[in-house]
C-alpha cells in the first residue's frame, strides 16, 4: 500500500513537471536560445545621417526594444553595445575596422545560436525604401535565415525588396555562427525616415524580427 502511494505521488509530480514544461515551451518558445544583437555604428561613427537623424541612435533604440521582447520569450540576449559608443581600440589607425573586428570577436567567442546585426540603409536618390536582409555564405544556415526574415519584412512591413547574398560585409564574413545583417529601412527616404523615428513603427519592426526569429528556431 505504501509503495502504491509513493508511485502515485511520483506519477503526479512527473505529470506536473510535464505540464509545466509544455506550458513553458508554448509561452517561451525561445527558452535557452542565445541571441547576440549588434546595433550598428555608435560613438564617433553615426552611420547614415539625414536632417539631424542618425542611424546609430535608431539602431540602438530598436535593438533595446528587441532585446526586451526576445528575453520575455526565454532567450538569453546580449548586445555588442548598450549605449552610444563604438568598440574600437584606443589610438587605432583604422577606427572602423577595429570596431567591426572587436564586434565579430565578441560574437564568435560567445558562439550564440543566432546573431542579428541591426542597421538602416541609405542612398542618394531618396527613392528607395523597404527593409532587407543580407547574408554571407560562410555558414550554411544564413541563407535560410535571410529568406525567413525577408518574407516577414514583406508581410509585416510591406517591403518589396529581396534578401541578398553579400560576402564582402566585413563583420558578417568574420562571424562563423548563424546570423544575418538587416537593413530595416532607408533613412534617405523621407517617408521611411519619419516612420523609423516613431515608437509605434519601431515596435512593428521589432514584432517582425521576433516572429522571424521564432520561425527560424522552429524550423
Give the secondary structure arrangement, pairings included:
Layout: H1 2-27, E1 34-39, E2 49-50, E3 53-54, H2 55-72, E4 76-79, H3 95-110, E5 114-121, E6 132-135, H4 142-157, E7 164-165, H5 170-174, E8 179-186, H6 190-197, H7 199-218
Parallel strand pairs: 1-4, 1-5, 5-8, 6-7
Antiparallel strand pairs: 2-3, 6-8
What does this structure look like?
It is built from 7 helices and 8 strands; from the N terminus they run αβββαβαββαβαβαα. With 219 residues, the protein is an alpha/beta fold. It is globular and about 70 Å long. The termini are far apart.
Beta-strand percentage range? 15-25%
Separation, N- and C-terminal Cα atoms: 48 Å
Per the principal axes of the C-alpha atoms, what is the gross shape? globular
Low-confidence stretches: 15-24
Percent of residues in helical segments?
40-55%
- Contiguous helical run count: 7
> What is the gyration radius calculated from CA atoms?
20 Å
DSSP E strands, number: 8
Series of secondary-structure elements, N-terminal to C-terminal: HEEEHEHEEHEHEHH
Main beta sheet: strand number and arrangement? 6 strands, mixed
Going by helix content, strand content and strand pairing, the class is: alpha/beta
Strand order of the largest sheet: 4-1-5-8-6-7
Return the average pLDDT rounded to an integer.
91
